[in-house]
Amino acid sequence: MRQRQSSDKQVLAWAKQGFPPGTEAFAYKDNVLAVENVLLPVIAASVGTPFYVYSATVICRNYRAFKAAFAGLDILVAYAVKANSNQAVLKLLAGAGAGADIVSGGELRRALAAGFHPQKIVYSGVGKTAEEMDFALQSRIGCFNVESPAELQLLSARAQALGAEAPVSLRINPDIAAGGHAKIATGKAENKFGIPQAEALQAYALAARLKGIKICGLDVHIGSQIEQAEPFARAFAFAAGLVQDLRRQGFSITHIDIGGGLGIAYQAGAKPPLEPGAYAALLRQYLGGLGLSFIAEPGRFITGNAGALVTKVLFVKPTAAKNFIIVDAGMNDLIRPTLYDAWHEIVPVVAPPAGEPCYQSDIVGPVCETGDYLALDRQMPLMPAGALLAVLSSGAYGAGMAGNYNSRLLVPEVLVEGGRFAIIRPRATYDSLLAQDKIPDWL
Length: 443
Ligand code: LLP
Fold this sequence. Notes:
This protein is an alpha/beta fold. Helices cover 28% and strands 24% of the residues. The site of ligand LLP has 21 residues, from helix 11 and helix 12.
C-alpha cells in the first residue's frame, strides 16, 4: 500500500489546526513534544513505553476553571473518581478543595486514602452491596445517590443495623437522550440508571417512611461527553419542576446533584464543546432561584485533556489493503477507540519536517483482536520503528479502564508539574502478573 496522499492531504490535521483545545500542556519544544517543561523522550527513557502522563498544572487549572464558573453559588465540585483514580491525581484534587464522586468501595478507599473529606464524598451507582454501604456509612460520607427502591430498602436496613442515618439523594431518570455514544448515555428511560420519573414521588414517599434514611436531595446525571447545552437545559428544567413538586408534597430538598458529563474536545480544529461558563449559566437560569445548594460530578473535564498515552512504534507493515503502524500500546491500555469509536488525536513525539509526505494508516496494537486499534485511517508521516507517538486526551478513562488482556502488564503513570515528574504508578511486573493466579494443590 503506502500510497502517498494527494498534496492537499499532506499536512497533518494537528499541524494545520493545532492540538485539540484543552491539550495546551502538550507542546513542541524544538520539535520534540513536551508535557509542561518535561520532554516526553526523557520520561520514556526513565519508565519505558507505553506510559500515561498527566499535567498536574492542567488538572488543577481545569478544576479551578470549573469551580469558578459557578462563583456565587453554593456548589461542591465532586470529581468523578472513575475518570482517573490514581491516588496522586486524587490527592492533587483533594488538596485543591474538590470533593469526590465514587461508585464503589474501592473508589471510596482510594478517595479516603488520598485525603478527601468524607463529607465531600458522594456515592453513585446502581449496584451498591451491603458491605459497601456499611463502609460508606461508617466513613460518614456526605450523600448516597440512590437509584432504586430496592437499594433504598437495603440502605435503610444497613443504616439501622449500624445505628446510623444515611443522607440520601434519589437519582431520577429524566428520559433525556445525551452523551457522546450510546454506551455512555445514562439518562434515557431504557438505561439502567435512576428511578423512572413516573415513580419519583412514590420513591421519595418510601424514603420518607424508611428509618435510617434522611432525604436531602435530587440527582440527575444524564450521561457523559455531552457537547451541547440542550440536554443539560432539559435536565435542569426537569429537576426544577420536580423540586417544586417534591416541596409541595412536603419533602425537604436542599441540594441538587447535576452529575457530570461536560464534554471536551478530542479533535484538532474541532468546535470546542459547551464551556463551563455556559453550563453554569444554564444552572443559574433553571435552578438558581430555588434556594438550593449544588453538587457537580465532572470527571472527563478535569483530567481528560490533561493526559496522554505515549507509545512506541514497533513495526510498520504496508500491505496491499492498508498501512499498519504497529505500536506497543493496545486496546487493553486504552479501550476507548474500539469500545466507543472514540477519536484520539495521535501525534509524533518528534515532529516531522514540514511537507513530509503522509500515508493513510491504521495505528494498531499488539493484542490479538481485530478491534485492537488506537486509530483508523489517519494521515501519518512515515514512522520508523522506535519512534514515539502521543495519544492525546487520554487522561480520563484511559489508565482507569486498562486491563491485563493478553497477559499484558498495566503501564506506568507519570505526573508532571513544571519541570519535574514523578512515577505515580510503576509498571506492573511479570512476577506480580504470575502471582495473581493460584494453582490448586491437586493439579
Ligand atoms: N457521575 C456519574 C454518576 C457518572 O456515572 C459519571 C460517568 C460521571 C459523574 C462523570 O462523567 P464525566 O464528567 O466524566 O463525563 N468510559 C466512558 C465514560 C463513562 C462515564 C461513566 N459515568 C468514556 O471513556 O467515554
